[in-house]
Amino acid sequence: MLAAAIVLDGLVRPRPQTVFAPVGRSLAGLWLLVWMMAALIGLFLAISGNALVSGALAVALLALLALVSNAKHAMLGEPLLFSDLALIGAIFRHPQFYLSAIKVWQRICAGAIAGLLLVIFSLLFVPYLWPHLAGGVLLVGGLAMLAISVRIAPFNALAREPDAYADVRRHGLFPSLLLYWLRWRQSRDPAPCAPVERRQLPAVPETPELVIIVQCESFADPVELFTNPGLALPALSEAKRKAWQWGQLDVYGFGAYTMRTEYGVLFGRSEAALGFRRYDPFLTALGETSYAMPMRLRDAGWRSLFVHPHDMRFYNRDRLMPASGFDVLVGEDRFAPVSPGAGRYVADTAVAAQIASLARDATERTLIYAVTIENHGPWAPEASAEKPDLVQSYLRLVRNSDAMLASLLDEMAALRRPAMLVFFGDHRPSIPGATAPGEALHTPYVMMRVDAAGRIVPGENRRVDLTPAELHHAVLDALLGDAVFREKATNRAA
C-alpha cells in the first residue's frame, strides 16, 4: 500500500525532474506521506475492520486526489490546494463550476471505482471488535507521529513561504496539502486598518459622487487571447482611449478563483501580506473587514451596494459582504429567472439594467460593486455551429460584456453627476484546446470618469498596470485623496 501511495504521489503534476519520478520527492515529504497513509488506513480499518479493504480505500482516496489535482493542473496551471477542500460542499451545490475540469471518462471511472469500493466494503465488513480497535490505535499513532514531526526539524522549516507549485514538486502533493493547511492555520488576522493620512482632493475634476465597479466574469481581450486583431472589442478599445486610467490587471490566477481578484479589489491587501491566506482569502476575510473598501468609505459618508445575480452563499458572500460594510445586497432574487435557451446564467444586460436602476435611485454618495456571471465557463458549443467551437461561444459572451461596458458609460453620462466607472476582468478564461495557463495572466481594466454635465473626463489617460490590491488603492485615492508616502510604504503592503 505504501508503494502504491508513493507511486501515486509521484504521478502528480508538477512531477519531480528525475527519471523515476517518486524518487525525486524529498525524504521529508516521503516521511510525512508514510504517516499520512498510516493514519488513513487506520481510519478505514477502525470503520471496516478489514485490513485489505482499508488499504484499498486509502489508495483509492489518494488516487482520486491525484486525478483531481492533475486535472486542475492541466486546466488552471496549479495543483490541488488545501483551500480547494473547503469547496467540497459547493461542488455538490454548483457542479457545473467544477466538473468540467474532469473528463467524462475520468468521471465514469471515478464513479465506478467508488461504487465498487462501497460494494466491497459492505461485503467484507468485519463485525469483530479487535480489528476496529487496531485501526483506532493505528489512526491515533499516525496522527501523533504527524503532530510530532511537523513541530521538529527539519519538518518545521518546510514550506515556510507560499509556493505551491515548487513545494508539490519538491515534497509531493499529499505532504504539501498537510503543510499548507498547517501554515494557513498558523496565520493571524492583521491589526485593524489604521486611519490613513491623505492629501486634499483637487478642485478639478469634480470628486465622484457615484462609483460603479464591475468585476466582469472571464473578461479578457480576445486580441491578446487569440492573437487576432480582428477580434478587438469596440467598447473596450474606445474606453482605453478615453479612460482616466487604464492598463493590465495582474490577477492572481488563471481560469478560476474569482475570489482572489475580488478580495484584492475590495480589501486591498497584497498576496505578500496574505501569505498562505492568498489561495482563498475569503476563508479568513471576516477577520479583515476593517480593510474593506465599503468600510473605509463609510466614515466619509458613502453608502455601498453589492450586486451579484447568483447564490450569495457561494464564497460565503451572504455573511462576508454585510460584515465588510455593504449596506445592501442585490442577489439572484432581484433578477428574473433565465429563460430556456437564453444561457445558463443571468445576462450581463440584466446586470447592467439593475446597476443603472440603482444608480438612478442613489441620492447620496454611493458605491455599487457588481460581480457578473454570464460568461462563466464551461462554455458550450454554439447551437448554430456546424462543428463544436468553444471559442465562438466565449466570443459571443465577451461581446455581451463589452456591450455592458458601453451601456454603463451611456447610463452614467445620462445621470449628469460626477461619477466613476471601474470595469475589469476577474481572470482569463480556461477554454480547452484554445487557452492554456502560462505566464500571461492579466486582464484589462479601465477607470472612466464623467463630470456633472455627463462628459467623459479623460485626464492624462494614463496607462498603469496594477494588481487587484493596487486597484483598490487607486479607487480610494480618487475618492478620498492620495495617501501620503509613508502610508503607501506601510499599509499598502498590508
Can you characterise this structure?
This protein is α/β, with parallel strands linked by helices. It folds into 2 domains: 2-186, no CATH class; 210-493, 3-Layer(aba) Sandwich (Alkaline Phosphatase, subunit A). 46% of the residues lie in helices and 9% in strands. The protein has helices at 2-11, 27-48, 51-76, 88-93, 104-124, 129-149, 164-171, 173-186, 222-226, 234-242, 258-267, 271-274, 293-298, 317-323, 348-361, 390-414, 468-480, 485-490, and strands spanning 210-216, 245-249, 303-307, 328-330, 366-371, 419-425, 443-450, 462-463. Helix 2 (27-48) packs across helix 3 (51-76), helix 10 crosses helix 16 and helix 15 runs parallel beside helix 16.
> What is the total tally of β strands?
8
Class by helix and strand content? Answer: alpha/beta
Number of helices: 18
Strand order of the largest sheet: 4-3-5-1-6-7-2-8
The CATH class of the largest domain is identified as Alpha Beta
Overall spatial form: elongated
Fraction of residues in helix: 40-55%
- Corresponding CATH architecture of the largest domain: 3-Layer(aba) Sandwich
Number of domains: 2
Low-confidence stretches: 486-494
Distance separating the two termini: 45 Å
What is the H/E string?
Answer: HHHHHHHHEHHEHHHEHEHEHEEEHH
Roughly what fraction of the amino acids lie in strands? 5-15%
CATH superfamily of the largest domain: Alkaline Phosphatase, subunit A
- Report the major sheet: 8 strands, mixed
Radius of gyration: 25 Å
**CATH topological fold name of the largest domain:** Alkaline Phosphatase, subunit A
Would you tell me the overall average pLDDT?
Answer: 90
